[in-house]
Amino acid sequence: MAPSKRRPPAQVPEALATPEEDIALGPDEALDGVQDLNFREAQTALELCLAQLQASDLEVEAMATLHRRAQAYANHCLQLLEKVEQEVQIWDPERPEQPAQPYQP
């Protein structure tokens, strides 16, 4: 079996990868910049939040802030996926003369 090649994780902007002691931000402050992330960055940030939630003995307020942040990253990922889904076109190779049709689940 060949060893798997893993890509290094995407870099999350420093403003979003805050250390544990900086977690207790206000609701709006915790979500600043989420919409500016690409899918890979938002996914990595979500994974970091989840790892912190699982591995840390956090105060309730910090846990709530991390949860809000993780939810914002998850929602952003979902929005990006939905946007891509709307752009996907279905082309039937059996009927090459017909134009591609938008994907509809």
Report on the structure:
43% of the residues lie in helices and 4% in strands. It is mainly alpha-helical. The chain has one domain. Strands 1-2 form a two-stranded antiparallel ribbon. It starts with 38 loop residues before the first helix and ends with a strand.
Quick structural summary:
This protein has 105 residues and is mainly alpha-helical. The chain is built from two helices and two strands, in the order H-H-E-E. The protein has a two-stranded antiparallel sheet.
Sheet having the most strands? 2 strands, antiparallel
Strand order of the largest sheet: 1-2
Q: How much helical structure, as a percent, in the residues? A: 40-55%
Helix-strand makeup class: mainly alpha
Strand fraction: under 5%
Order of SSEs? HHEE
Radius of gyration in whole Å, from Cα?
Answer: 19 Å
Uncertain stretches: 3-25
Task: Return the average pLDDT rounded to an integer.
Answer: 77
- The coarse silhouette is rod-shaped
Note the total helix count. 2
How many distinct beta strands? Answer: 2
Distance between the termini: 37 Å
Indicate how many domains the architecture comprises.
1
Features:
single chain, 105 residues, mainly alpha
Set down the secondary structure blueprint:
Elements: H1 39-55, H2 60-87, E1 89-90, E2 101-102
Antiparallel strand pairs: 1-2
Helix pairs in contact: 1-2
